[in-house]
Backbone:
């Protein structure tokens, strides 16, 4: 069922999350502050352009990390704040738990070899 309107569903959810976050942290009532509004618009655009569209599994399983790093950080903060709090009231959004996987980057440790500069 959800697959049919996957994108719409995710849009609604992210709207709720950002709304919740903005209301609690930025004291905005009903209308988002410009910063949050921009973030929300951005995330909607990403969904619009999602290559998988209605075939998309969940963002967590998506292999394409389409968010820019700064936006990803922002939405990550929103998720981290809103998710646990919203889950208490709106358990159906537990599905969205999955979305967080999108932002869990695998840590790559760069093996730095400390080669000393030329010794004379
Ligand atoms: Zn805000």
Residues:
């Amino acid at each position: 069922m959800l697959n049919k309107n996957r994108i719409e569903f995710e849009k609604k959810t992210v709207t709720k999350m950002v709304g919740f976050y903005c209301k609690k942290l930025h004291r905005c009532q009903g209308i988002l502050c410009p910063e949050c509004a921009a973030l929300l618009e951005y995330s909607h655009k990403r969904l619009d352009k999602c290559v998988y569209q209605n075939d998309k599994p969940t963002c967590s399983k998506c292999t394409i990390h389409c968010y820019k790093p700064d936006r990803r950080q922002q939405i990550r903060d929103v998720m981290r704040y809103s998710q646990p709090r919203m889950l208490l009231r709106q358990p159906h959004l537990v599905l969205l738990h999955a979305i967080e996987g999108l932002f869990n980057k695998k840590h790559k440790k760069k093996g730095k070899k400390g080669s000393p500069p030329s010794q004379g």
